[in-house]
Amino acid sequence: MDLKKIYLQRNRWSHKGQFGYVLIIAGSELYTGSPIFNSLAALRSGADLVTVITPYRTANVASAFLPDIISYPLNKNLSREHIPVIIRLSKKFNSLIIGGGLNRDEETFGVIRELIKKIDLPMVIDAEAIRALNQHQQILKNKTAVMTPHKEEFRILTGETVADDIADRKIKVKKWAQKLHTVILLKGHADVISDGKKTVINKTGSPYMTKGGFGDTLAGVCGALLARNIDPFESAVAAAFINGKAGELAAQKYGESVLASDIFEFIPQVIKKFA
Q1: Would 6 be classed as within a structural domain?
Q2: According to the model, what pLDDT value does residue 72 have?
Q3: 13, 78, 161, 223 from 46: Cα distances, Å
Q4: Using CA atoms, how far apart are residues 61 and 36, in angstroms rounded to an integer?
């Protein structure tokens, strides 16, 4: 894939902020990894600045892991009391990533829906945020979004089961992207990406990319591209390619021992080679 249209030659007078500020709402007191994977993938994909809104413990873990991550600590897991401050903070950013590692309960789902409804940013809707939209798909109306489900999340969102068959997936992903007026990136052995008009199959990736975190890195790459004002469909296609190709390289090096965090070593190599 040619990434040159996304990663243009930088002007010598380029400045901080020109290549995107990404806001991430992810993580819980139990799940600390998702916001870190989101953040580092976004930064390695060229975002200038990343801020994570997450509970205090996870914020500390993220900041200790990488000082490049800005953390806004919450006093507890995401709840309704946090909505006003998050909406106010969101106005400083160019894109949003929401869903990874959040609690899977009705209170959290209600907060997620309210944030998606009220935040006016291009967004990546992942993991628990996809589950939160079950029977609430109307919230997506007039939103600029990329949804990144695996097949179970796709079933929860749409009520339809997809087979391990590319032809079946192409038909259903295109249908639902058209119906929901959004971009859907269905993850799998071959990723299927559609905006309801165009459909692309991404074949980068590795069967070793089964460990937790590879979906979070995908969301991070996509969020970085949206923050550059790249079209959502093009962002999804490029993110699937970059994440998959970096995963391939990591798997070639580590095989069965590959971790999602190993991908950060290879995202820069993929961008350098194809941009």
Answers
A1: no
A2: 96
A3: 16, 28, 35, 10
A4: 9
Whether 131 is covered by a domain: the verdict is yes
| Angle of the 232-254 helix axis to the 267-274 helix axis, nearest 10 | 120
Over the stretch 136-194, which tens digit does the pLDDT of each residue have?
999 999 999 999 999 999 999 999 999 999 999 999 999 999 999 999 999 999 999 99
Q: Work out whether the CA dihedral 249, 219, 262, 103 comes out positive or negative.
A: negative
> So what's the pLDDT on residue 1?
82
Domain count, the chain: 1
Rounded alpha-carbon distances, angstroms, from residue 202 to 27, 93, 242, 256, 260: 28, 29, 10, 23, 19
**Residue 85 — φ and ψ, nearest 5°?**
-70, -35
Is 8 contained in some domain? no
Residues recorded for the chain: 275
For the chain, the straight-line distance linking the first and the last C-alpha, in angstroms and rounded, comes to: 9
Q: How far apart are CA 24 and CA 71, in angstroms?
A: 9
206 within some domain: yes
Give pLDDT, residue 96.
98
Domain ranges, residue 191: 21-274
Q: What is the pLDDT of residues 77-87, one digit of tens each?
A: 999 999 999 99
CATH number of the domain residue 29 falls in: 3.40.1190.20
DSSP H helical ranges for the chain: 33-44, 56-65, 83-90, 106-118, 128-132, 151-158, 166-180, 214-227, 232-254, 267-274
Under 8 Å between Cβ of 44 and 111: no
The separation between CA 206 and the C-alpha centre of its own chain, rounded to angstroms, equals: 19
Place of tokens 């087979």: 163
What's the pTM?
0.98
Name the percent of the chain in helix, strand, coil, to the closest 5.
50, 15, 40
